[in-house]
Amino acid sequence: MFSTRRKIKEKYGDNEKFSDKRNKLDVEKGDIPAMMIAAFVTLVIPVILILCVIFAIVWLIFLR
């Protein structure tokens, strides 16, 4: 399961610059839930709407 992570680590090593930047990242208490809500609104809702449109087109053409 973790073989890909191990292979990447062997090939590139530990990226210390990225780890330092990630550890210094200033994240406030409400930032994580806000990012999750933003991702939901940005990704999940449009996908659901697209699927509904596709379903409606199929229903109008074939099932009516």
Can you offer a commentary on this structure?
Helix content is 81%, strand content 0%. With 64 residues, it is an all-alpha fold. The protein starts with a helix and ends with a helix. The chain crosses the membrane at residues 32-62.
Proportion in β-strands: under 5%
Q: What structural class do the secondary elements suggest?
A: mainly alpha
Q: What's the average pLDDT?
A: 82
Note the quaternary state here. single chain
Uncertain residue segments: none
Task: Fill in the keyword field for this structure.
3 helices, single chain, 64 residues, mainly alpha
Please summarize what this structure is:
Keywords: Membrane, Transmembrane, Transmembrane helix. This protein has helices spanning 3-12, 16-24, 31-63.
Provide the fold topology.
Elements: H1 3-12, H2 16-24, H3 31-63
